[in-house]
Amino acid sequence: MEQEWQQLNEQVVSLLKTARQQVLQKMQEPLTVAAKSNRKDLVTNIDKSNEQFLIAGIRRIDPTARVLGEEGFGDALTDLKGRVWIVDPIDGTMNFVKQHDHFAMMIGIYQDGVSQLGYIYDVMNDILYAGGPQLGGVWANERQLTAPTDLALSEGLIGASGPLVIHDIAHMQAIVHASAGMRVYGSAGIEMIHILEGKSLGYISHLKPWDIAAGKILLETLGVQVSTIDGRPLDMLSSNLVLVATKKAQRDILQIEEDDVSL
Ligand code: IPD
Ligand code: CA
Ligand code: CA
Ligand code: CA
């Protein structure tokens, strides 16, 4: 059984490495960019072609699995029964378009809704974060990660999505004020890498399943808490206001929510 997962992991790593080569090559050509729901919600030809490439590879690796992909090339899911792969082909599309940097590819593998393996690939730095319960840890390429220090909110940096702070949703301004400082990286995947590496203690954002599927698996493997902003389990089939935090910072943030404090 363990060997089966090892083998599957090797196949996913190889698929992601090939996908990276293709993306780097396609980035040499001008991008085709379109707006989805609004002018800040972009999709490019590479988001689409990379999702198609990844899903085709997943179907070869695991023919009976179902796949949920952001750009719609997977299956329409109404439950998480069986093996489900959740794919974000380019996370941080705005960064991808404007910076050609600071974006990630992400895959999360679930079995009957239970975490198995997660992958966040920092494409430009060529660092693949891979792990989960089936591998018994998390690795950044060859380097095994240790669990981040359990910092209290006042002791570390917190990642957030800009609009939450601007509109002060869910006491964001009080949370940021109580932390050591706020960072906004523009990619859920890159935010979660900072937490895995112990560089940030948390992240708060409205996220869809493909934004959080991989990170949830990797973070929880290292003891980081992943919940809704009021401490409930995530619904992996819809959008959630997600709170990722060290144990102590989660406790501090849930207390701010409960106290209903404003600055
Ligand atoms: C987005 C990014 C962004 C987050 C958004 C996501 P996408 O993903 O992760 O940082 O704030 O909520 O939708 O659309 O670039 O894959
Ligand atoms: Ca998107
Ligand atoms: Ca995303
Ligand atoms: Ca995306």
Automatic annotation (TrEMBL):
<dbReference type="GO" id="GO:0008934">
    <property type="term" value="F:inositol monophosphate 1-phosphatase activity"/>
</dbReference>
<feature type="binding site">
    <location>
        <position position="211"/>
    </location>
    <ligand>
        <name>Mg(2+) 1</name>
    </ligand>
</feature>
<keyword id="KW-0479">Metal-binding</keyword>
<feature type="binding site">
    <location>
        <position position="90"/>
    </location>
    <ligand>
        <name>Mg(2+) 2</name>
    </ligand>
</feature>
<dbReference type="Pfam" id="PF00459">
    <property type="entry name" value="Inositol_P"/>
</dbReference>
<feature type="binding site">
    <location>
        <position position="70"/>
    </location>
    <ligand>
        <name>Mg(2+) 1</name>
    </ligand>
</feature>
<feature type="binding site">
    <location>
        <position position="88"/>
    </location>
    <ligand>
        <name>Mg(2+) 1</name>
    </ligand>
</feature>
<dbReference type="GO" id="GO:0007165">
    <property type="term" value="P:signal transduction"/>
</dbReference>
<dbReference type="GO" id="GO:0006020">
    <property type="term" value="P:inositol metabolic process"/>
</dbReference>
<keyword id="KW-0460">Magnesium</keyword>
<feature type="binding site">
    <location>
        <position position="91"/>
    </location>
    <ligand>
        <name>Mg(2+) 1</name>
    </ligand>
</feature>
<keyword id="KW-0378">Hydrolase</keyword>
<dbReference type="InterPro" id="IPR000760">
    <property type="entry name" value="Inositol_monophosphatase-like"/>
</dbReference>
<protein>
    <submittedName>
        <fullName>Archaeal fructose-1,6-bisphosphatase related enzyme of inositol monophosphatase family</fullName>
    </submittedName>
</protein>
<dbReference type="GO" id="GO:0046872">
    <property type="term" value="F:metal ion binding"/>
</dbReference>
<dbReference type="InterPro" id="IPR020583">
    <property type="entry name" value="Inositol_monoP_metal-BS"/>
</dbReference>
